[in-house]
Write a structure and sequence with these properties.
This protein is mainly β. It has a single domain, classed as Roll (Pnp Oxidase, Chain A), CATH 2.30.110. 9% of the residues lie in helices and 34% in strands. The chain has 3 helices and 14 strands. Strands 3-2-6-11-12-5-4 form a 7-stranded antiparallel sheet, with helices on one face. It has a 3-stranded antiparallel sheet with strand order 1-13-14, with no helix packed on it. It is globular. It binds flavin mononucleotide (FMN). The site of flavin mononucleotide has 20 residues, from strand 3, strand 5 and helix 1. Flavin mononucleotide binds next to strand 3, strand 5 and helix 1. One of its GO terms (molecular function) is FMN binding. It comes from Kribbella rubisoli. This is Flavin reductase (DIM6/NTAB) family NADH-FMN oxidoreductase RutF.
Length: 203
């Protein structure tokens, strides 16, 4: 390999897309795409821009649903990519974003009631985590809310679950990947970890 020194403006090397549903101050619902979401045991750490409506909501109303769309749903995600639930739109976003309160309708997605938290789930997303923020702080530069959300309930469509178990079938499930601001699905499986819970071959 010949490595170049580059100065990319973004460092999004490819992470799953989540749609976060949260509750607005007036009781309506916000929905926003986020790719800064990763799990530590039963906690999902979220990185949420401070000027967005999602950060405002999470600081006052900690309930959240972390919905994971599949690759085929990338256009629904992109339909709300240029929207914010914040009114007025923050100044730095005004050139490229517009305010929209009805994000579910704008995306063409369907809200369905959660079991344990206030915001609804996205019916079309095969995997949904009901969660509540237990800790939140600003990042060192003050631009992002780093929120730790404890997952209270996991919903998985039966097509991605190994029958009769609590295991997601990695061969059946694919996240939607945000790769330097382009959308991808997963390619063919390369192999499995020695810690897999769903081994393909028996020793
Ligand atoms: C695929 C995708 C991933 C994104 N990931 C993040 C993220 O991890 N954190 C973040 O603050 N914004 C992220 N954004 C941008 C927000 O979705 C955007 O700022 C949006 O306006 C926030 O909506 P809200 O103001 O209603 O919360 C992402 C956008 C897209 C399309």
């Amino acid at each position: 390999m010949t490595h170049l020194t580059i100065e990319p403006s973004i460092l999004y090397v490819g992470t799953p897309v989540a749609l976060l549903s949260t509750v607005n101050e007036d009781g309506t619902v916000n929905l926003a795409p986020m790719s800064s979401a990763w799990a530590l045991g039963d906690v999902v750490v979220l990185g949420v821009g401070m000027t967005g409506q999602t950060a405002i909501n999470l600081r006052s109303r900690p309930d959240v649903v972390i919905n994971f769309p599949s690759p085929s749903q990338w256009e629904a995600v992109e339909r709300i990519a240029g929207l914010t639930g914040r009114d007025p739109v923050p100044e730095h976003k005004q050139a490229r974003f517009r305010f929209e309160r009805e994000k579910f309708a704008a995306a063409g997605l369907t809200p369905v009631a959660s079991k344990l938290v206030a915001p609804p789930r996205v019916a079309e997303c095969p995997i949904q985590f009901e969660a509540t923020v237990t800790q939140a702080e600003l990042d060192a530069k003050g631009n992002f809310l780093i929120a730790q959300a404890e997952v209270l309930r996991v919903h998985a469509d039966e097509t991605v679950v190994v029958p009769g178990t609590s295991h997601v079938d990695p061969a059946a499930w694919s996240p939607l990947i945000y790769n330097f601001r382009h959308y991808f699905g997963l390619a063919e499986e390369l192999g499995e970890s020695f810690r897999t819970e769903t081994p393909r071959k028996r020793a």
